[in-house]
Amino acid sequence: MEVSKRKANGVSPTNGNAHKKKKKTIDTEQDLEIVYFESEINFHSTVTKMKVGIDLFGQNKLTYILDFYLKLILVHALLNEVTLKNNQRTEIDQFIKTITDEIKSIPQGKIRHLSKMSEWLEKFDIKIPLSFSKMSKPFQFIPPTIVETIGSYTYDGLIVKSSNKISTLVDLLVEMPRICIHKKDYLNNEYIEKRATYLCYLAKKLKYSLEFSHLNDTTLNQVVLLVRPNETSSFAIRILLAPEKDYFNEKRLLPTPSNLRWNWFTGNEEVDEPFYSTPNYNTSVLFDCRYRSTSEYLTELFLSSNELCSGLKLFKIWLEQRQLSHGFGSFEGAMPAFLLAYLLHTKKINKQMNSYQVFRILLVALMENDFSSSQCCSLTHEKITEDSFIEDECVLVDHSGLLNVF
Fold first, then answer.
1. Domain spans of the chain, in order of start
2. What's the pTM?
3. CA distance 237 to 365
4. Which pLDDT belongs to residue 228?
């Protein structure tokens, strides 16, 4: 009876469960639709973000490329301003040839004692601020056989300094023949005085606008002779004197040996000879001896890569703008070139870099590198004696392992 009543009312024992299953199915479909729409929204938002990111990346990349090429254009324009033009180089080359021919054609001089050379040169209004009273050796001028251009002019690393009276300085090396100097003249100031006499003799014979000056405007450096075609000329030839290559024993010119004899200066031979190292004197003589080797090394290096040479020019401009390229304690002469050579030697710079990258790394090296004597930075793989350059505040030894270029 109870079952029949349920059927009569349209309710079966299983009808309630079917209703519940249908409701669950509807809920599941709704959940799936919600999940689907949420996933679609997330997908489209992700794609949109990716597109925006790609666009931003493209814009940043384009901005970087434009900025990079703009810098290269500015660098190129700046380098054109400070680089010698072809007509300027032609004029300088012609004057160098004229000077070289005149120096080589100077006739051989008479044999005179050094003690009387200053009196003889005063007749020609050339004064030597040195005392030759202890110099009993004879001196004879012999014209040089080797006169050649050295320095940054040979590899186009020179910059034109428009703010200076003399905008361009070209180094001309004159090697004194062996007959003019003795093998042991590096002792007791004899080479220094013969070099001064030889330079004054050249000044007596050359008929141009002449001026004595110190190398790189530093009074502690050797005296050089500036030669110009006339007083209004914007360039000058800087005559540097040196002994013939490998003439002196260069190991005797390291900072630690003593090459100024105490007894020779005092004239007292009875007192025992005290030992005093003479680093400054030794370096001044060794600096002359290394002129040609140094120039050959740097010329070979910078002729192998125009970008390295351009980076060096940018660094020189930076130094010149801050008045750090001349005077005592400055980054003078070949120091910038040797710093770049050292960074190339330590593989912080390579020849595939452009000039702007080379310039930036040079500035970073000034800030980060320690060139103190305790580090003893060197351009050679040979071992450097630790106490050889202990007297120097900054040390960068050249490729020979003998000369501290800093």
1. 82-261+275-298
2. 0.78
3. 32
4. 93
